[in-house]
Design brief:
With about 140 residues, this protein is an alpha+beta fold. It has helices at about 5-10, 25-35, 50-60, 90-100, 115-140; strands spanning about 15, 35-40, 45-50, 100-105, 110-115. The protein has one domain (about 5-140): CBS-domain (Roll). The two termini are about 30 Å apart.
Length: about 140
Amino acid sequence: MSIQSILDHKGSKVVTLAPDARVGAAALRLRLEHIGAIVITSGGHIEGIFSERDIVEGLTEHGAAVIDLPVSALMSHNVRTCRPDAEIRDVMRLMTQHRIRHVPVTENGALRGIVSIGDVVKSRLEDMELETNILRDYAVAHQ
């Protein structure tokens, strides 16, 4: 199964902000959109990714003043991406190896979506359930 199958199910909406957006505004956007990360873009290019984890780390380092910082001060700059045709298994491995929970999906330099660890785990569980049902049906039919 490919990442495109996840995007087909969940949609390709990606929340983006500019690097100079304030952490307070980004935190509010995370809450309102019910998401865990925002892709930070400038001129159509991915500059970073800003997540709930960045807010927690920012709070421990800057205290309440973190709210007024630009997201660029806290975001992850080394963003791992994948293509829509990437295998879900490979993206799970990428997330595990780099300890990341969100991977933007790009194609020909354009942002096409984003997948979270929850998305890939849900997809994998659905695959396993389907396989289990097929095996059960086969076993019943060949008793």
